[in-house]
Amino acid sequence: MPEEKIGDNLSDVKTKNRSLVLRLVKKRGFLSRIELARITGLTQPTITNIVNDLIRAGLLIEVGTSDTRAGRKPILLAFNDQAFYVVAISFKKKGFTVALTDLGPNILYRRDSNYSLLENTEMALVELQKEFIHVLEYATQSLSLILGIGVSVPGPVDPESFTILAHPVFLAHRNLDLRPVLREYDLPIFMMNNAYAACLHETWGGKAKEAKNLIYFMVGETVGAGIMVDGKLYQGADQKAGEIGHTSINVFGPRCVCGNYGCMELYCSTKSAIEKALEAAWLGKSSFLKKRLREKENTLSFQDLLEGAKGNDPICKEIFASLGQYVGIGAVNLLNLYNPEVLVIGGEIALAREFIESSVQQVIEERLLYRDYTSSVIYYSQWGEDVTLLGAASLVLDHFIAGDLGRF
Ligand SMILES: [Zn+2]
């Protein structure tokens, strides 16, 4: 690994200041040159130069005037989300998605595939290459504006070698190098565990843009957390930090695939909720679930459970209330461990907010340490399942705004 540079050359300072201005306008929305000078401490002429350069590069746009002051009204600047594009790829346990996004990031075009890397690696890689090329063809007029490829994966990755180290249902895949599949047009590739990517997305597109200490508690089919400390993602020595889903909450509980016993994921995941729903359907406790089970040839999904709860099925609502308690327990553990400014509850579970929120809140009120003087704020992610895909796009956005891609 090359030694880290300590000094700053003049060109580095220039990039650093541009990066700072872009970051501020992207995160805070409309700002004037005067406000930028005040916030950054840079002189007015310096800010004017930077802003002019960034307008010329198409990265900032002037969007009218501020009406807060009398006299000459300052012109407001906005970040141009359409200046560049990103290819975002998100792997799930079953299937994957390849999408083209702008710098919002907003999904402009997507290709969803049911091929699972876990179940049929070779076919999934062939399909991945196909879908990737589809997306590039869609973007054919703007290929030179694609900044890079962001990939989010449910498990640890080695960002240096572009390798998926293992899949959470465990170790079936070791060291899967994605480069041969994604080498078309030689775009830079960035990879990250999906909970970390989701955490990053909350700081770019979500409600936690200003948070320096943030936990993204992702509850879906699997359970994990993205941890941001002092504005930096904490990934651990081997990109394995945040595996709260595999902390034991019942030492006498059933054995988990990871080898541990009574892991949180066994109680607090969409998978565990679906298992309960199946049981209720088989036992005839819920006529809604029983009917749905028949219609869908003995399967049920999280979506079915949501529909049941929305239609006031008491069993579906009960399953969510119980799931909410476990989400609350996970939240308490994370709040006690990290004392973040913001804890985001995300992943698929966030779609069920209205059915879990009161149980989550009750557990936090009853069990959190020092609960009378805790300032941590709890948000529910607004992105649903797509958060890991948007996270993959945000990963590229993050590198771009840091100046790593040499595009400004
Ligand atoms: Zn486990």
UniProtKB/TrEMBL annotation:
<protein>
    <submittedName>
        <fullName>ROK family transcriptional regulator</fullName>
    </submittedName>
</protein>
<dbReference type="InterPro" id="IPR000600">
    <property type="entry name" value="ROK"/>
</dbReference>
<dbReference type="Pfam" id="PF00480">
    <property type="entry name" value="ROK"/>
</dbReference>
<comment type="similarity">
    <text>Belongs to the ROK (NagC/XylR) family.</text>
</comment>
<dbReference type="InterPro" id="IPR036390">
    <property type="entry name" value="WH_DNA-bd_sf"/>
</dbReference>
<dbReference type="Pfam" id="PF13412">
    <property type="entry name" value="HTH_24"/>
</dbReference>
<dbReference type="InterPro" id="IPR043129">
    <property type="entry name" value="ATPase_NBD"/>
</dbReference>
<dbReference type="InterPro" id="IPR036388">
    <property type="entry name" value="WH-like_DNA-bd_sf"/>
</dbReference>
